[in-house]
Amino acid sequence: MDAAAVKSSRPRLGPGARVRPWLVLGRVSNLPTVWSNCLAGWLLGGGGLGWPFILVALAASLLYTGGMYLNDSCDLAFDRQFRPERPIPGGLVSGRVVLTAAMALLVFGVALLAPLGGRTLCLGAALAVLIVVYNVTHKRGAFGPLLMAGCRFLLYILAASAAAFDLRWQVIAFGLGLAAYIFAISLLARTESRGAQPVSLWLPFALVPLLVANAIHLSWSALGFSIPLIGCLILANRRARESIGRAVTLLLAAIVLLDLLAVSPRNLMLITTFAALFLVTLIFQRYIPAT
Question: Which residue of 31, 81, 99, 213 is most buried, as measured by CB atoms within 10 A?
Fold first, then answer.
């Protein structure tokens, strides 16, 4: 059989089959949580909707996706042993191409922030550096959950800084609450990757944003917005006993509910927007794995 015959005998992948590995690598089902982080930080910073917010959300999306691509590039040895179904060890995409795409997205994501001012640009650069440090070190040290939490904290601060000249203390407080929640998810997710039994150490950290939001807002609306998040925490705690992956997936989607609580809007359009982002995340997670 000649080379032409061999080439013609190989199955040709359709457009969907070629695109899906990149969607899986980028964990794009979690992108609505990035958008909700940007929206919450932006609103808490006093910003109004307009092209600067769209620019922040787009830059954050590129930074997040680039970080996820870099994650699989750095975890290649681990994935070959424990997750051979991932796109790179599975031979669906080239590791070198993924690494190149990751760095390009990180650089382009930071560059998009340039029109929003020097402070926002510096925060974007700091976020990109933290993303790189996390991906390079998270499998080798115990600081991975803290670095991941720091990434989301910086995203809040970045969005708020683009919205206003002065950062409000409430933004810092809510950002720290978000960081504690992300730290909790990372603690739980680590038990899955290490094959350990889940412990409830993560749960107190996940409750921090609830305490922060209700202490700051002191309103019935904040209490009402707390209920969906509490429900997700209870359900995730139950799921963790059977499947840590399913629990982590739900907790990731609930980031949107945390952002809703942080803002505690009385505007029906904003409430609907956060609710839509939560539902879109759940729908996306049915088709693209969140972890």
Answer: 213
34-43, 106-115, 155-164: the lowest-pLDDT one: 155-164
Mention every residue, 6+ apart, whose C-beta is less than 8 A from residue 44: 156, 160, 168, 170, 171, 174, 262, 263
Q: How many Cβ atoms from other residues are within 10 Å of residue 136's Cβ?
A: 14
CA angle 255, 178, 116 (to 5 degrees): 95
Residue 148's nearest CA partner among 183, 115, 110, 114 is: 183
State percent of the chain over pLDDT 70. Answer: 91
Is the pLDDT score of 13 beyond 80? no
Neighbour tally for 277: CB within 10 Å: 23
Alpha helices in the chain (DSSP H): 3-9, 15-25, 31-44, 51-74, 76-82, 95-111, 118-137, 144-163, 169-193, 202-217, 220-239, 244-253, 255-263, 268-285
| CB contact at 8 A, 171 and 160 | yes
55 class by beta-carbon count within 10 Å (0-12 exposed, 13-18 middle, 19+ buried): middle
Q: How far apart are CA 57 and CA 42, in angstroms?
A: 10
